[in-house]
Amino acid sequence: MKKIMMFTSALLLTSALTACNADDNEALDTRYDNDTRPIGYYTNDGRGEGPMTRIADRDRKDLDRKEVNYADDYQGGDLARRISKKVNNMRDVDDARVVVTRDSVLIGVDTNDRNDRDVKPKVKSAVKKMTDKDVRVTTDEDMFTRIRDVDNDLRDGNGYNEVESDVNAIMNDIGDALRRPFENNR
User: What domain count does the chain have?
Assistant: First the structure.
């Protein structure tokens, strides 16, 4: 009886192990199957290098910006172009982005970090000679990124009314940042 039990156990164990490998060569081992569809950042489907590369390339100073297509409802496009060109040619400025509103000019400056504090007053002074609008300049990296994103939307032909709430939020945040050092001295 023991022999029959051992034979039956061995047979069951062998059949169970064989059943696990019943499909074509290593059916359950999918570690090396490259069945995922490339999308986004890692895409290599031949249509470009993905959105991260396009974003990085779009912001390089040396690229030709003939694709700028301000929407008809954005009245500040011409002034924004002139100010951007002027500020981008200034010393210690790596990139400058400009958004013009009815009453203000919002300038985000990416500096080379050598004279961050000196750049702001120089930019403001130069731009004040170009317009009678209120000029706000920031060298904060996060603010620069937000202004750049709005400027990119405007350059791509999106209407000003589509980004107006973003512009207002940025202007409020810049105003808060200017007031913050004085609030603790009360």
Answer: 1
